[in-house]
Amino acid sequence: MSFRKASLNEFSIIEKYFSTLGKSKGVSLGAGDDCAILDIPSDKQLVTTVDTLVETIHFPSNSSPSDIAQRSLRVNLSDIAAMGADPHWFTLALTLQTANEEWISRFSKALESDAIEFGCTLVGGDLTAGPLSITIQVFGTVDKGKAIKRSGVKEGDYIYVTGSLGEAAAAVSLFEKSLNSTTPLPKNLIDRLHNKFYRPEPRIKEGILLQNIASSAIDISDGLIADLSHILNSKLYGANIEFKCIPYANFLTDIADHKLIQKWVLSGGDDYELCFTVPKKHVALLERMIASKKIQACCIGQVSINSGIRCYDDQGELLNITKSGYQHF
Amino acid sequence: MSFRKASLNEFSIIEKYFSTLGKSKGVSLGAGDDCAILDIPSDKQLVTTVDTLVETIHFPSNSSPSDIAQRSLRVNLSDIAAMGADPHWFTLALTLQTANEEWISRFSKALESDAIEFGCTLVGGDLTAGPLSITIQVFGTVDKGKAIKRSGVKEGDYIYVTGSLGEAAAAVSLFEKSLNSTTPLPKNLIDRLHNKFYRPEPRIKEGILLQNIASSAIDISDGLIADLSHILNSKLYGANIEFKCIPYANFLTDIADHKLIQKWVLSGGDDYELCFTVPKKHVALLERMIASKKIQACCIGQVSINSGIRCYDDQGELLNITKSGYQHF
Predict the structure, then answer these.
(1) Closest Cα to residue B193, out of B214, B169, B210?
(2) A251-266 pLDDT, tens digit each
(3) Contacts A150 to B, Cβ<8 Å
(4) Interface contacts (A, B; CB < 8 Å)
(5) For chain A: N or C, fewer Cβ within 10 A?
(6) What is the Cα–Cα distance from A208 to A190, expressed in whole angstroms?
(7) DSSP character for A151?
(8) How far apart are CA B163 and CA B246, in angstroms?
(9) What is the ipTM of this complex?
(10) Which residues on adjacent β-strands are paired with residue B140?
């Protein structure tokens, strides 16, 4: 590892672009040896997650190297956030068809910018020849016993989501040119959607705030219904949620009809907001944090003993929803 | 992570084949949540490494799923061994064209067998659709300050290798049908070469034994000369080595001429033996361990202040060697 088995035979590129990205504590030995060596404080546990992004599956093939780099890191940081943990380090396994130095330079620059923003250090990795794909593994720490696990969910818990949903799915529709908007979208809207897809905001601050409040949490990558199911399935629970309580940006109504918006919001995925459950005893505290703008979140429903997720529309009618997560390109 | 963003949409396959592979201590939360949670003892440091294997680049496209699984895990375990560390956990990011259940079942079975043999637990991962590639990240621990780093090398240190070299490169020649043997190889030889390539022995026991003896170590993946260079370059040293001291299996002389054997041994790579350096004061102890069969290793030369690696043949003549590592398929 540590960028050693370079079938591209580009040791100099590795050294130039990937040896010192970001700065954080606890790195006893970074990139450049067989392994990285990391120090975990004795009052912490290690949390770790890995996600692979494959060209044309997880991002369109015309994506820029900086867009790819930042999305690849952020989707992983989002998993760390969903545990209520703090990210510190990451490794990068990068597979590239050719060692195009300009591409690598732009990828590395964008990755560094995010590494610094989120307090992460690149501590090693691997560069191989092959079809474009990016596997990032992020390492973080959490106070012992304080991680938010899915299995903490209980019947009667209130269900919340952070931020707003649907825009990343709208971005995918835009990329796929499947938006039937009568007028072309203004540039600022296109940029906003583009950013929502490539630069989702990992809710790290929110995750840490929720450590002593949430009974369970997940980041919404596959879609609200699919990801909420992952939480509920850990205990064979169900849920009742109300569509009118789920936040989405107003401007979506300018570019899509109500049915498409429902699809984006409920099963679109890729927003990387947190969906979390809160026991009744902590709801008042959370609502005070929401009122004082410490955290942006909305209650969308409640966990029930009856399995399955029932989503009601404004008229109290049951919506016909699909549980399946979003299928990429 | 934890096999969640499954573009293959095969949550059931993940649960069936990848949720409980291997058993080791320290797993507070394994596969099935956003992150794994691991406990690192307070007297230990975390060591971690990642390697990607891409079809046709790192293994032939007709490789069996069990061969691919075991090579993917072992090349990573070998990096842990080169630090003198103990492997405990791993994650698997698996990219597959199609979710062929028979293939996945055979892959998983072989991975489990090695996970148990080497005391590792699969704690999470990611399953995505795309061209076949396997990224494994292994996590281990080492007593604080006891890891063997490349930068520990000093002028005058003796250079050793474990086991014997060249057979994995011979296997690659066999796969590429570039062996000019007059008679077909007997089946037991073919099996032996096949195993050397797909099931290299990670030198974990040896690495741990060398913790207080070796000043530096590396696993030979790219080739002896290339990997020894990685150690020496950390201090801008050079080395003098003798070809006659480098161990290789006798039977190689039956299937290749001296020149080809030299190439396999010096720059073939893929054997995953350890190359390590030993200060003079520890040589006697190491030689006693070798004599008592605690470790199988040979001294092949010495670190010099003059940069570059000089390899001498039996007649004391300088060999014309290439520094470049082995290029895969």
Answers:
(1) B169
(2) 999 999 999 999 999 9
(3) 32-34
(4) 226
(5) C
(6) 32
(7) G
(8) 10
(9) 0.92
(10) B47, B87
